[in-house]
Design goal:
The chain is of the alpha+beta class and 110 residues long. Helices cover 30% and strands 37% of the residues. The protein has a 4-stranded antiparallel sheet with strand order 4-5-3-6, with helices on one face. The protein has a two-stranded antiparallel ribbon with strand order 1-2.
């Protein structure tokens, strides 16, 4: 597993170094967003909005919100939602290094 074995990652595409840095640097630069999944007791109100995040998906009582890790934290998002909604559970989805590497190759092949 890359995350456990490597401290530095160099991504080469067609003989050219396209990315070089520590895992955390690459993840911060290439995957700056994080997704928080909020399960509510009731279906969320139609006008639910969070200023520091964008709703990327709704499914029943579950809402997926994406936010920039540098600009805000999960606490601010949770605090805002809890003002109008009753939260049952919270989980997080982060982009994996394999997705980031795929993205780098897709972008550099254009």
């Amino acid at each position: 597993d890359i995350e456990q074995l490597c401290h530095r990652i160099i991504i080469i595409n067609k003989g050219i170094i396209v990315e070089d840095g520590s895992l955390s640097e690459l993840m911060d630069r290439l995957a700056p967003e994080k997704t928080i999944v909020v399960d509510l007791f009731d279906e969320p109100s139609k006008d639910l909005s969070v200023p520091c995040a964008r709703i990327v998906r709704r499914e029943g009582n579950r809402v997926w919100l994406q936010y920039c890790k540098k600009d805000t934290g999960a606490g601010e998002i949770i605090s805002h939602i809890s003002q109008t909604e009753h939260i049952r559970d919270i989980s997080f989805e982060e982009t994996g290094i394999d997705d980031v590497i795929r993205r780098v190759y897709a972008d550099s092949s254009r």
